[in-house]
What we know:
By secondary structure, the protein is mainly beta. It has a domain at 213-339: TonB-dependent receptor, plug domain (Ferric Hydroxamate Uptake Protein, Chain A, domain 1, Beta Complex), CATH 2.170.130. It has 13 helices and 63 strands. β45 and β46 form a beta hairpin. The longest helix is centred in the N-terminal third of the chain and has 28 residues, at 2-29. The chain starts with a helix and ends with a strand.
Amino acid sequence: MVKKTIFLHLKKRLKLFCIINVFFMIPFSSFGTNSISWNSEEDLFSVQYENATVKDILDYIEKHSKYIFIYSANVQKNLNNKVSISVSNKKIDAVLKELFSEIGLNYKMSGRQITISVPDAPKIQQTTQQKGIKVTGNVSDEKGEPLIGVTIILKNDSTVHALTDMNGNYSITVPERKSVLSFRYIGFVPKEEVVNNRKVVNVQMVEDVGQLDEVVVVAYGAQKKESVVGSITTIEPAKLKVSTTRSISNNLAGTVAGVLAVQRSGEPGYDNSSFWIRGISTFQDAGQNPLVLIDGIERDLNNIDPEEIESFSVLKDAAASAVYGVRGANGVILINTKRGQVGKPRVTVKAEFAATQPVKLPEYLGAADYMQVLDDILIDTGQQAKYTDRIAKTRAGYDPDLYPDVNWMDAIANDYASNQRVTVNISGGTETLRYSFVAAAYNERGILKRDKSYDWDPTIKLQRYNVRSNVDLKLSPTTQLRFNIGGYLQDRNSTTKDISQIFQKAFVAVPHAFPAQYSSGQIPTTEEPNVWAWATQSGYKRRSDSKIETLFSVEQDLKFFLPGLKVKGTFSFDRFSSGTVSRGKTPDYYVPATGRDDEGNLIIASKSNGTNFLDYSKSGDYGNKSVYMEATLSYDRTFADKHSVAAMLLFNRRNYDDGSKLPYRNQGLAGRASYTYAGKYVGEFNFGYNGSENFAKGKRYGFFPSGAIGWIVSEEAFMQPLRKVISKLKLRASYGQVGNANLGGRRFAYLSTITDDYDTLNMYKWGLDSSYGLTGMAEGEFAVQDLTWEIVNKMNLGVELGFLNGMIDLQLDYFDERRKDIFMPRESVPMTAGFMKQPWKNFGKVTNQGVEVSLNVNKQFGKDLFVSLMGTFTYAHNEITEKDEPSAVVGTNRAETGHPVGQLTGYIAEGLFTEDDFEDVSTGKLKKGIPTQSFVSKLRPGDIRYRDVNGDGKVDVFDKSPIGGTKDPEIVYGFGLNMKYKNLDFGALFQGIGRSWNILGSSIIPGANRGVTGNMFTNANDRWTVDNPSQNVFYPRLDDGINSNNNQPSTWWLRNMSFLRLKNIELGYSLPKSLWRNTTVISGIRLFVRGTNLLTFSKFDLWDPEVENTTGAAYPIMKSLSAGFEIKF
């Protein structure tokens, strides 16, 4: 009874709202001469048109209601007649009767489909269908997914038509064998098929890229693409599923214009790419990352499975991101997860199995060649060779225990690893309830080896499970409720030792000192560890992460109060927890064997005793939670078919608690107002009014506005003769401000801190000789009274071009960003000023400019072949225009100001010294006029000669200069091809980076540590010697110790790390539907093989150029070959 009473009350309230709606419509109905309104709840129309063509009226009805109109060419001339009509709150049937009464047309309704014909059409239809030929078939998309509601029309006679059902099936009767069927579906390229002698005509339709992106996801909503004037790039979710990698960020480079991304490691669980939107525009590391919003909530991009994604948008300029205020300075990524569609349950199961291998590992000399180089170095420096006997015995393979030849990379790493992924996607629903469920399981093994004599496993294993369920419930025709719940579980197993340290130690472990393990079972070591024991004998640890993400929202359409007005409320709660369990162990270690006794046993002594059991410890327990609330009021309406007005006002609050003393909180308002006239001229204003708890009262809020304009030139009348060639021409421009409240991890910097750091204070002292002192408190960090956020002024100019009826789509953008008030220490303030630590201030400035280009070409050749080409190019160059630096540096070649963020510095090498440069080679005295070099006491021919930059007659630290560029690339590009021929599909993507530099580490120089540590690359013989006094060598003169002159960072060791990589390649085959003709359960099966990172082209060939490490001693990026299948039910 209670429920019944509530519903009766709601019904009365709805009636009251409908009455109010009538009165509100009165003033708005006079806004323009011509107007149409549609009450979807009652299915009633109010039409007011004076002297308008019938076609214009039908187009408007079709655009703003559920109805679609079908008619043939012989009806077209009647639709150009002009009429006047005035009806109020009438059914569509009554509207059409009055509309067609003046022009003599008939119509027939079938659900939402209305067929218009001339008066004699019904008789022809009846005769034709009685004597015609029945044709059946199925319509699907490129992947075999059935298309529901496809319109099939008999060419030249639209009265003969049909629609596909829930399974994509249709049935139609045609008059003759030569009849042509036309297939039309929104978002797909229209297709025609001649019946010929077929009774079954199955059709596969191709997506029309130009139509599919008509609606673009923007900040806090969606807009028609034609009205978007901000710089926004959308990417099809399928392009984020093109590799076996766990991380979405690894698929961004070269795919999305405006995104610069590099992957620095392939270690499972830690292989995410670093990425920036339009490059780096601050030298504050913590303030470089873009904001990532998943379903409107701030979350981690790499914790969502690609199968969960429905839309992916990148917001780049101020017009697109200003509404995010202090969080939008570095751009925004918007991801919407999949939602259910009306229809029967659709189930997709996808599985993929991959074998992986390092892209490129460093190649080292074997033990004999290694010792030979050491001997050569000794001889070159006037000493006696000491490895002659060992070299001979090593080459002969004599007693590997005493004369080992160990490739430590081979000792710790397998040649191959593997990963597997299985996903299940279920969606469907009714007009009232829609649902989507996605589950994904991912398993990956690393390349480190395991000692199978133990039951426990120290190898790297990553197991991850993602689940997401989204439900949409339509409580009433105007009330929509959404509930999302998702999350993941992840377990990562590994050795107790740090993985990066294992690879670094494998690099410095020499091949001839001792084997990984003696044949008698003992494990040797020296001052340098036995890296094999580190990897396989040290126990294991397991880290477990879990997160749950929830979202609840309700949206109310207030059209009964004011058409176009909506209100929405959102609430989200996320919780993350993590913990690590370690089971460590230390093996027994022995000093390297010195020989064998008379019985042939190794002469070996113990170095340290280990443990015979696994210990137990817990660490790293951590958790955080966040609560987000949002309220939105929006308005979107078109008047007189020309004036489109949209507005949005939003309040939000986020509370983030990671267990620190005080939670993080930000809140604010956001707003947008846009106006579009006649689909040609667009204006938009956005603002964010945001605050953060990190600033002092009175300064916690900031206002960040932006404005943008657009002109769709191709809609102008003077462009119509060129439409077949230039199908789209759109100009847009934007300018605005965004902010950054991330202060490098420092909180409440407007307050001073008190410290009791006695080591720094060295106590308070007094007395004549300061011999008396007491400990006490002192001021630590100095308060920044006028603390504020970073501010970025962004300008963007863009052009969008379409050619040949949308076959070619080209987009170009130029951007200019100027950031100020970067929070930094005042390094020009001397410590003698009385500060415990240097004071901080909003002081720094950085500019960032660049261009981005994206190109898409789509072409259908006949009915069987479809080809798509794509290309992206992004260039972003930044420059520090103001940075507080020590006074001794300001204005010199060592200053950072005037150079990019992260600029590499070193000495400028002018070649190698020759004998002609010396007055006395034996003493190392240089000729007059040649600057001295202060790194060693004695220079020799073959040593690196550096430029005296400041001209003081000597080379020292004051001559360091900017060299090369930065490690992070300024250029990222990609190009690819997709083809489909009948049931075969093929795709390939090349991705590359440019203007990326690195300075090789000094430890790569052969012999630097007298053979105690340091491997040698296989190019060790490419060096300067007395017999090879060439300037064109890889290594300068080698020494049997550290040569402090030659190991300085300089242009000699500077390398261009640019590369081009075959990022992805895939071949797929969709099995013919005839194989499961007798079952209605399966709708499609696709088999595919895929390769990732298979080819790399680069001038640098010592290791993978994408690895940032200066020695190549890092967990390698992996390439893979995989096979999989996709089944749809």
